[in-house]
Amino acid sequence: MTETAVRKIIHVDMDAFYASVEQRDDPALRGRPVAVGYPAKRGVVAAASYEAREFGVRSAMPSTTAMRKCPDLVFTPPRFEVYKAVSRQIHAVFADYTPLIEPLSLDEAYLDVTENLRGLATASETAQDIRRRILDETGLTASAGISYNKFLAKLASDQMKPDGQFVVPPGRGEAFAETLPVTRFHGVGPVTAKRMHDLGIHTGADLKAQTLEFLQRHFGSSGRWYYDIARGIDHRPVRPDRERKSSGSETTFAEDLTDPVGIEAGVKAMAADVWAWCAQTGVRGRTVTVKVKWADFRQATRSRSVQGRVDDLETLSAVALDLVRSLYPPRMGVRLVGVTLSNLDRSPAPSAGEPQLALG
C-alpha cells in the first residue's frame, strides 16, 4: 500500500453502553454490578456493567445463571428509546468529523477519517477529540481503535477498554495480529477457536503459519478470511450508504447447549439486538428467520413471514422462539443461534411509539 492509499479508520465502541446509560441516569447504580434485563426465570441479560463482568456475567446469559454468578447483581429494565436517543447524539458527533460512518449497532461504528475535515494532526488526535466530545455531551465513555483497515481498528478498540484508545500504524498490523490469541479475532467465535486450538493454532502467528489450502480445507470459505487477517489484511471499505436487505444477529455459546432455557435466552438476546437496529433506523420487516448451528457444525434454519409486518420486539421474540422450539428436542448440542429480520419495510413506523423491550 502506498502512503497516499493508506486509509485512516477509527472504530468507536461505547463502554458497556446500555448498562452505562443506566448508571449515568441513576447514581445509586454507580459502582454496582448492573444487568440490563429482567430477573425472571426465563429472562436474559441484554447488557452487563463492567462491575458485573468481573463476576463472569455476560450478555445473552440466562438471568438465573447471572444471579448465581453474582448474587448482588442489580437488574434494571431496558429503555431502548433512551439508548436510541443517546445513539443519535453520538452519531451527530461522528458527523462533524466525516460523512463516512458505518454503524454496526446503537453503540459502535466505523469511521473513515482519511479526509481530514477538522484539520487535526493525526487520526489518533481525531479519535481523542471524538471521545472527549462524546463524554462532554452524553456523560459516557467510549473506546477507540485506530488503524489502516477495519479489522485492525476493531481489534485495537478492545486493547485499552474501557475509556481508552490504541493505534496500529501502517506497517505494524501484521506484527500486532501475530501477538494476539485467535479468540480476539473478529469472526473467530468460541467454537471456531476450539477447532483452531485442536489444530495447534492458538495465536495470530500460529494462524499465519498455515497455508491457504490448509485453512480452506479445515474452515471452508472462511479460510481465505483467516489467511488474510493473520497478515493484517482487510480491504473492506467503510460503507455509509449500503442499503441492508436484512438485519441479523447471532451468538456462539461458550459450550454446546441442550437446555431450552439457555438456548432461548440466546434467541431472545439476538432478537433484542435486531430490534435495537430497527428502533434506531425505523425499519421494520415481515420475515423472521432463526438459525441454529449444531455441535457437528451442521445448520438448521426456520423462517416465517407475518401478516403486515413485525412492529415490536414482543412479536419478533415470540416468532423467533416459536421457530427455535420447532427444532426441539435438540438433535444434539447447540453451538450457535441467530435471529434475522428480512423482507424489510422502510415506510414510517406507527405513530403510537415503540413498545418497551420485554426480555422476561
TrEMBL record:
Give the PROSITE patterns listed for this entry: UMUC
Q: Locate the site labelled Substrate discrimination.
A: Y18
Q: Which GO terms describe its biological process?
A: DNA repair; DNA-templated DNA replication; error-prone translesion synthesis; SOS response
State its location(s).
Cytoplasm
- Enumerate the spans annotated as UmuC domain: 9-189
Q: Where is the active site?
A: E108
> Could you tell me what the cofactor note in this record states?
Binds 2 magnesium ions per subunit.
Primary residence: cytoplasm
GO CC list: cytosol
What is catalysed by this protein? DNA(n) + a 2'-deoxyribonucleoside 5'-triphosphate = DNA(n+1) + diphosphate
Determine if Plastid is one of this entry's keywords.
no
As recorded in UniProt, its EC number(s) are: 2.7.7.7
Q: Where does Mg(2+) bind?
A: D13, D107
Record keywords: Cytoplasm, DNA damage, DNA repair, DNA replication, DNA-binding, DNA-directed DNA polymerase, Magnesium, Metal-binding, Mutator protein, Nucleotidyltransferase, Transferase
Identify the cofactor(s): Mg(2+)
Q: Which residues form a coiled coil?
A: none
CDD domains, alphabetically? PolY_Pol_IV_kappa (cd03586)
Is Signal tagged as a keyword? Answer: no
Subunit-level organization: Monomer.
Supply the PANTHER family for this chain.
DNA POLYMERASE KAPPA, DNA REPAIR POLYMERASE UMUC / TRANSFERASE FAMILY MEMBER
Role noted for this protein? Poorly processive, error-prone DNA polymerase involved in untargeted mutagenesis. Copies undamaged DNA at stalled replication forks, which arise in vivo from mismatched or misaligned primer ends. These misaligned primers can be extended by PolIV. Exhibits no 3'-5' exonuclease (proofreading) activity. May be involved in translesional synthesis, in conjunction with the beta clamp from PolIII.
Instruction: List the HAMAP family.
Output: DNApol_IV
Q: What is this protein called?
A: DNA polymerase IV
Annotated source species: Brevundimonas goettingensis
